[in-house]
Amino acid sequence: MKKILLILSLSLMGISSGGVAHHSTNLGYDTSIENFEVTGEFIGFRWVNPHVLMQVRVSNQAGEEEIWTAETHGASVLGRFGWRPNMFEPGQELTIIGNPPRREDDHIVHIQYIETTDGEIYSPNQAN
């Protein structure tokens, strides 16, 4: 009986660690930096589960255009917090504050919150 419980416990640990690894922000983002800012023109959402992605058009320091992707929770979670796929207008300027990518050449950010030019704050972690 003890062997069966040991095998079952080890099996469950293996399954659960895979789930945690999939959802770990540490894999693609530098979580030691929390207030990385990307300001640009909202292009649109990819409003899906398990992660909503949004794109913004950014002018880099050399004046060149870059497309940045911002990632957050899935559509079902954001919907419970009051987010909607039409909450921002294409062309609207937004500042995304979050965790930067681990690789310098990646143009992706993990959203902590979004600020509009009129000062409205949208958090993916609380009711808006």
Written overview of the protein:
Helices cover 21% and strands 34% of the residues. The chain is of the alpha+beta class and 128 residues long. The radius of gyration is 18 Å and the shape is globular.
Keywords, separated by commas or semicolons:
21% helix, alpha+beta, 6 strands, 5-stranded mixed barrel, 34% strand, 128 residues, OB fold (Dihydrolipoamide Acetyltransferase, E2P)
Radius of gyration: 18 Å
Low-pLDDT stretches: 4-21
CATH level-3 fold name:
OB fold (Dihydrolipoamide Acetyltransferase, E2P)
Largest sheet: 5 strands, mixed, barrel
Number of strands: 6
Helix and strand topology:
Elements: H1 2-22, E1 36-46, E2 53-59, E3 65-71, H2 75-80, E4 93-99, E5 108-116, E6 121-122
Parallel strand pairs: 3-5
Antiparallel strand pairs: 1-2, 1-4, 2-3, 4-5, 5-6
Q: Short summary of the structure?
A:
This is Copper-binding protein. With 128 residues, the protein is an alpha+beta fold.
